[in-house]
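User: Please predict the structure of the protein below. I'd like the answer in structure-token form so I can feed it into my own downstream comparison script.

Assistant: Understood. Taking the following sequence of 127 residues as input:
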Amino acid sequence: MSIEPSLRVAAQAGSGTHPSQVVVARTVEEVEGLREAWETSRVSDIDSDIDYFLTVVRHAPGVLRPHVVLIRRPGQPALMAVARLERLHVPVSLGYRTVMRAAAGDRGDLRRPGRHRGGCRRETAHR
């Protein structure tokens, strides 16, 4: 797989002589550069489809940009965390009356917090 040169890549100390590689994609084009790695995870949920994710990022109101982290580990399956930055309007209430709607940024999908992809078990993903 080739990595687009615009992706941010950082070598991390790994176990053994081969370091892990962390790739952070913050634009639609950079996420497209991760398509091959994304599709090898073979997750069938519609929310996990790269084309669905990019459609939401491009067209949903309030979405600022994607934020995808890919961790390649020698001899182990790759890990991927998929999120999008959104501008949300949070109601500020006093009693039963909404007094204002404050803008707040969010890092992730509020509908499904704690989602992860890749070759790790759910119980080890939260360590």
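That's the full token string. The CA atoms of residues 55 and 88 lie 19 Å apart.
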